[in-house]
Amino acid sequence: MQFDELDELYQEIILDHYRNPRNRGRLPQPDIHAEGNNPFCGDEVVLDAILDAEGRIQDVGFEGRGCSISLSSASILTDLLRGKTLHQAEALATLFRDLLHGKELSDEDRKKLGDLEVLEGVRNYPIRIKCALLAWLALQEGLEEHRARK
Ligand code: ZN
């Protein structure tokens, strides 16, 4: 990643999530479990989520290794998902994919993305889009499996 081409503040947030990942660790008996890997970069991520009685995401954790983009994206994901419904989680994944694929988002949608916005610059580096989306694609697969089990 050519960091000098990304906004400096954004770099700081990305590196902070990379160095101090939020919600790191596996969860026992997760309702949702997902794994993803990105052969282009060697990134690997494992996600676990536990739902509360109302079906909201109560707790979420991740383990991973790889580049700063993939791991900061996974760390931000875990922060964002807590307290969300599965529908909201799915919508966030779609919004983030839209952002990276160059779609114009409304201010309201941008607000929903929170810290994820710092990864917007990645869209200028197509090979890195896979890194940024890794955890989110894994999440979507995990949500599908969860729905299929019901
Ligand atoms: Zn990567």
Number of strands: 3
Ligand species: zinc ion
Q: Compute the CA-based radius of gyration.
A: 14 Å
Adjacency order of strands in the biggest sheet: 1-2-3
**Order of helices and strands, N to C?**
HEEEHHHH
Portion in strands: 15-25%
For the report, how would you describe the main beta sheet? 3 strands, antiparallel
- Straight-line N-to-C gap: 41 Å
Q: Roughly what is the average pLDDT, rounded to an integer?
A: 93
Relative helix content: 40-55%
Protein structure class: alpha+beta
Number of helices: 5
Query: What ranges have pLDDT less than 50 throughout 5 or more consecutive residues?
Result: none
Morphology: globular
What would you say about this model in short?
The chain has helices spanning 8-19, 68-81, 86-100, 107-113, 126-149; strands at residues 32-38, 43-51, 57-65. With 150 residues, it is α+β, with helices and mostly antiparallel strands. The protein has a three-stranded antiparallel beta sheet with strand order 1-2-3, covered by helices on one side.
Characterize the structure shown.
The chain starts with 7 loop residues before the first helix and ends with a helix. The protein is globular, with a radius of gyration of 14 Å. β2 and β3 (57-65) form a beta hairpin. The protein has a three-stranded antiparallel sheet with strand order 1-2-3, covered by helices on one side. α2 runs parallel beside α5. It has five helices and three strands. The protein has helices spanning 8-19, 68-81, 86-100, 107-113, 126-149, and strands at residues 32-38, 43-51, 57-65. It is of the alpha+beta class and 150 residues long. The protein binds zinc ion (ZN). The site of zinc ion (ZN) has 8 residues, from α2.
